[in-house]
User: Fold this.
Amino acid sequence: MRVAAPTTIDGVLTEITANGAEPIAGGTDLVVGVRAGKRKLPEALVAIHGVEELRQLEQRADGGLRIGATVSHETLYESPLIREGWSAIADGSALVGSAATRSTGTIGGNVANASPAMDTGAPLAVLDAEVVVRGAAGERRIPIAEVFLGPGRSAVEPNELLVAVELPPSAAGAASSYVRLEYRQAMEIAVVGAAAWVRLADGGEHIAEARIALSAVAPTIVRAEAAERLLDGSGCDFAALQRAAEVAAEAANPIGDNRASAEYRLALVPVIVRRALEAAVTRASGGEVAVPASRGYQRREGA
Amino acid sequence: MNGSRLLRGDGREKVTGQARYAADLQLAGLLHARFLYSEHPHARIRSISTEQARSMPGVHAVITQDDVPDVRYGMFVKDRTLFARDVVRFEAEVVAAVAASTPEQAEAACRAIEVDYEPLEPTLDAEAALAPEAPLVHAEWESYGTQQGVARDGNDCGLMTSVKGDADRGFAEADRIFEDRFEADMSHPVPIEPHAILAQWQGEKVTIWSSTQTPYPARSGVAETLQIPESHVRIVVPHLGGGFGGKCDFHFEAHVAALAKAAGRPVKLVLSRREEFLATDKVRHPMTIELRTGVREDGTITARGARIVMDSGAYVGDALFAAEIGLMMVQGPYRIPNLAAETHTVYTNRTPAGSVRAPGGPQVCWAVEQHSDRIARELGLDPIEFRRRNLVSDGDTGQTGQVLEGVSARECLDRAVEIARPERELEPGEGIGIACGWWFTLPVPSGAYLKLNADGSATIITGAQENGSGSVMALPLLAAQELGMTPDDFNILYQDTDAGPWDLGSAGSQTTANNGRAVVAAAREVRQQLLRLAADELEVDPADLELADGGVQVAGVPSRRVAIKELAAKAQGGELLLGRGSGTPPSLPPHDLSGCVGRLGYSAFGAPSFFAVAARVQVDDETGVVRVLEITAVHDFGTVLNPLGAQGQVEGGVVHAIGMALLEGTRYEGGRQANPHLLDYKLQTAADSPPINVEFIDAPARNGGGPGGLKAVGEPPIVAPVGAIANAITAATGTSVQQLPMTPARVWAALREERG
Assistant:
């Protein structure tokens, strides 16, 4: 077996294109998958933890954010910048595995692994992220909506490296959240998850625009567009959010497995979506919802 | 009087990673073993071909049932062979074993073994298996040998009944009769260390390093199945990484020894986590529990009936312990004059069940305690008041008529209620539930030696097994008390069948009581020797001497003393200071088994102990997710020898119980476990563990306990919290969940049903 650990992106790309190497960062999916017999150990691996550029988390001149592929969940969870402007990512990162997996696992790995139960996928979907990949032919940007193709399948080609995730600037009056149904409080995998992004208007009276994405209830992360449209110009009281959340379930097509029956998952989608919307609206109106929003749910009564 | 807070002797090496476990050991020329499992839950073996596997690279031995003596073994029923013979009866039945230079080579060779199976219809429903026309899991069951007293009939491999008073009359005297049915899924012990075994032959003798909890029974199993004298088998247990019952009895020691013999080299087997779930015969029994109770309007219980069906899986193993203990939970710590209960232990084509911490206890206690709350509710009584009216007190009788004395049941309940009383009003979705229970201290033989070394230190040589609970680590406390020394003065040589006297092993929470008695007896022999030596030295009568502070002194005249160290050094030149002890185990209290069928060793409870647990939970009524916010556990352990260790046992038992209550359960798809891995068999994590209030009631055992009146500690803590959590869920929601584990989906479904 061949293992290389170059320190530049070009060095990584050479390993990928010339030797067919697969990139490894935290290894929290690859190593576990091989041990469990779910996949074979690649003939060649290229470790990318030594590439400085991939480790950067920086605000761009336009106010947007560039998150390098090997930024860890722990960093995202702790980052004041993320918590403030892109809270859903902090909510999602806070829930990944345990302290050990959070400090080892990376956002690039989470995206490229394309598990429908991933905890950063729905947040990236509602934040209109773009995934930046580089290959021999240069760089291309993939809108997040086109990244996830199926369970374990992403639009990142085998001869490409995911180098960063980019987020547009956070808008005034907007906030986001991610909530998941979890049976225990560590080492958990989403049973149902939902991210919400809302932009409020009229001094917080109405929702100007909303985005909702679901995890663990379809073959990929999915947006709940019908529910989003229902919220355009809607009030933001409990009943309005509940109505939209019920419509969001139409976007779900869950399977039954060890973690939950399809029936239970489907029934829980509206609950989790409404809670995500409640948290996002509260944050957008200047209220406090601690990270991660999943824990310590507070019902939002008023408008 | 409770003892001192002892920091255990093996603690530092365990937490710093210096402790060595069986899987860590290496031997010159060591080979690695892998098993070939049946994969089919039920099938006939038409043929096995190992030819290709034998010729593969690195392979030194491939064995099947044809390569070992044709012996059936089993603690209660001799229903099992080391490798499958003709028929496989569950998905992880061992069909063949390979020893090769690397684990990967052994695995590859296993895959190259060709087995031609004729799949058979599996028996998967224990209740259906009891029907007279049901297909037999063991066609030859009648020819199997059994331990005396076992009552069987076809797939019912252990029928037991418990009869007290006249149940019919009791029900006739009742104002109201309540019936409930409960179902508990299979759960697992999940020790952090998987089973690991090494075997090495020298001549006719084999040394086996094993992760067993019960070295002497394991030795007997090897001798029986390989048809060699027990004296040719030495079992050594390095540090043990937990057992929780899962490493009781006899597992794979003989398989590995047979491989090592065939290969002519030492062999090591380390199970994977998946194999831990599938292949060991120690899962907690799936059970259905039907309860029927007659009460008067004032809440007085007049009669109880129960029918329990336990799914034993493919073999009986040590399951009948669970059957009898579970049966003894039907009355629990309540005054019930008339009782008729029966337990059926049933063969199916699932993973064999057996000992898991407090076998049979938590499931039946969970059912009885929910049943109690329901009765109270429907009678309009507070559940605590209902219990107060029915809890046993001195002079009442147990389930088999034993007369109870020194009963602390009421005190446990009252303290638990007091400690758990909330300081503020409960939040919406919160509820508090309570559960009570009783347990026993198992009297069995045990033995120890004690030698006083020339440097003044001492060594305890014991047959007892330390499974992590601290029971062996606490033995120096007892010896130190006898010898006027400190616990730090003692080394312990343990977990080696060629060194220590026979012991049952770490099972039944019995170590501290029985081996403690042996250690005290051994220390007393040394004490007598020291007194004689000191009497000569100080020229006084031995009767005037006492041992204290590391010396022997004239009672009341501490200035006239001689250090033990000095006496020990002198003894080196003459008669060495050696003690031996066993002591006679106390007998079970007098009891009455008339009318009872199939009873074995747990027909009465020695030194009965009592406990009460309160749980405060929060139920998310939209999702069914339950969080345990606080547990209060009040236990009568008689005299507590080491409060620090006992507290750790309670905390560990509570967290284990929370897992059983809420998440730990095996899902079956046909004859196969669907979640045999830690991803989807969810244990509690540290983040899920609530504050746990632990309190001990000082109630020294009057009869049948250990030194100083101590009682069993290891198992009781897991028995009642499951029921307390169930009752807390009901208190929070008005709905009861009668399936275990009480998963979010089940709580959610129960709430939906209740609320429409």
Remarks:
- Chain B touches chain A at residues 620, 622-623, 625, 662-663, 667, 674-675, 677, 679-680, 682, 684-688, 743-745, 748-749 (CB under 8 Å).
